Amino acid sequence: MPDYQHHWKDGTPVHLPLGKIVCIGRNYAEHARELNNPVPDEPLLFIKPATSAVHITRPLDFPRNQGEVHFETELAVLIGRPLTRASASEAESAILGYGLALDLTLRELQSKLKDKGQPWERAKGFDGACPLSPFVSAEKFSGAPIHFTLDIDGNRQQTGDTGDMLNPIVPLIVHISSQFTLLPGDVVLTGTPKGVGPLISRQTLSLELEDLLFVETKVV
Ligand code: ZN
To answer: What is the CATH number of domain 21-218?
Structure first.
């Protein structure tokens, strides 16, 4: 049974339930290109269920026999207020914290679903498909572009800079809230930069968000 609960970096719980995880595909042009996907003209949204969330420090586990599972390192935004058709200032003031997530993806299954024009949930919504780090209070961020990295077994694999996003964070939240209401405790995943690849047993993944958060996890 999933037993995920949001936490702050200092280990204290965030007293908000996780409802849904709203994700954007292809928010970095170079990542869209590495998968030979066109860059969409409006945000490509999908939702991972709350049951996909796990604490990132747990050994990463995922379905077997359905092809490769890819990691996608993403900046995660913790929503603190209800947002329905929000303005930019409402969206900005609803950001409670930032963390890091892995948008785990059964890539071969996703390709098959895409080819058939079917939804992606089976490829992206399985139990454990959304490892989430603790969150750092939004007050610690100045509003400048945010940087994050993923190292695998000590080698740099992904480098993210929110300045490279096709849909920056606040306009993205505004857009999401024009499509469906966001509630306190919901999380927005803001897309992955290039460098995605398959998880392999016993890899060690080290994720860093500015100099504010460092988490490490292992593949089962
Ligand atoms: Zn993603």
So the answer is: 3.90.850.10
